[in-house]
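Handover notes (outgoing to incoming on-call)

Open items:
1. 7,8-dihydroneopterin aldolase: sequence verified, structure written out, both below. Nothing else pending on this one.
2. Nothing else urgent.
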Amino acid sequence: MTDTIFVTGLSIHARHGVMEHETEVGQRFVIDLELYTDLSEPSRSDRLADTVSYAEVVATTTAAFKNTNYKLLERAAGAVADAILSHFPRIRAVKITVHKPHAPIAAIFDDVGIMLTRSRHP
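7,8-dihydroneopterin aldolase structure tokens:
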């Protein structure tokens, strides 16, 4: 059985992109996370020590996403996935969606981005 912890709408200002102004000025990105784990123990114990702290997930995600400037969202999301799987042994897999609502595209659109899933055991 796999249960899910999620964080949606995490806004982070970062300097990812191919264009020079993206790396100079930066822009807002929005991240959604789905963390797959077994929540049977904390659902009975009611102890934070038996689960994964949302606050720690957000801090880990923010640091991994902001600490390095990447050209591609795929690489930035991969850095987040690596950090989460490294820091949280209870997490079996993670699904990350990175939205880039202000991407420099000559079109009218609501959103663009990427979604990736990584697991401990591919």
